[in-house]
């Protein structure tokens, strides 16, 4: 079978692109730990307080064991509710010791939001009716910004909070 020169070039280009895409996908999945969650967990978006994790006193950072934390967050237009501090001010900053295993659980009562801890593998879509959760190990110290990366309305850019991972 005779292949024209251009056919060969395009074959190499096509197969090469396919291999490149698979390598990029594999790198994200196996080295960076980017995975979809295993199954959908549902919640009544009109009554999220009925779920223990999203009751006012359980929002924000909770230490559950040595080096184990849970962070419960209600994303809404246009805020991340991480509970309140002792003075009753909304918490916008949480601090976690380096090397901790952290389970993030997020839901929303209104529209689709994003939940991305920029610079880590925590990057979830938050949909009304579902609990998005991801467990990760915070291995690198530094300050990370939580951003909404799903356009959710005029205050979309105002949705943020910060996570500090300290030594
Ligand atoms: Cu919430 Cu964009």
From TrEMBL:
The keyword Membrane applies. GO terms for cellular component: cell envelope; membrane. Keywords: Copper, Membrane, Metal-binding, Transmembrane, Transmembrane helix. It catalyses: 4 Fe(II)-[cytochrome c] + O2 + 8 H(+)(in) = 4 Fe(III)-[cytochrome c] + 2 H2O + 4 H(+)(out). GO terms for molecular function: copper ion binding; cytochrome-c oxidase activity. CDD domains: ba3_CcO_II_C. InterPro entries: Ba3_CcO_II_C, CcO_II-like_C, Copper_CuA, Cupredoxin, NosZ/Cyto_c_oxidase_sub2. It holds the Pfam family COX2. Its main location: other. The chain crosses the membrane at residues 9-31. It comes from the Bacteria. Residues 17-167 form the Cytochrome oxidase subunit II copper A binding domain. SUPFAM superfamilies: Cupredoxins. PROSITE patterns: COX2, COX2_CUA. It is found in: Cell envelope. Subunits I and II form the functional core of the enzyme complex. Electrons originating in cytochrome c are transferred via heme a and Cu(A) to the binuclear center formed by heme a3 and Cu(B). PANTHER family: CYTOCHROME C OXIDASE SUBUNIT II, NITROUS-OXIDE REDUCTASE. This is Cytochrome aa3 subunit 2. It comes from Ornithinibacillus caprae.
């Amino acid at each position: 079978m005779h292949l024209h020169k251009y056919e060969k070039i395009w074959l190499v280009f096509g197969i090469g692109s396919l291999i490149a895409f698979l390598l990029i996908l594999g790198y994200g999945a196996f080295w960076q730990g980017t995975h979809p969650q295993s199954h959908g967990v549902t919640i009544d978006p009109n009554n999220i307080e009925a779920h223990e994790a999203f009751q006012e006193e359980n929002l924000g950072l909770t230490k559950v064991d040595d080096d184990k934390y849970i962070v419960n967050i209600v994303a809404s237009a246009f805020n991340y509710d991480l509970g309140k501090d002792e003075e009753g001010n909304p918490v916008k900053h949480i601090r976690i010791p380096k090397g901790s295993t952290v389970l993030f659980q997020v839901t929303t009562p209104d529209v689709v939001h994003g939940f991305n801890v920029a610079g880590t593998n925590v990057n979830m879509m938050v949909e009304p009716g579902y609990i998005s959760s991801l467990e990760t190990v915070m291995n690198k110290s530094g300050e990370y910004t939580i951003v909404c990366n799903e356009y959710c309305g005029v205050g979309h850019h105002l949705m943020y909070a910060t996570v500090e991972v300290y030594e």
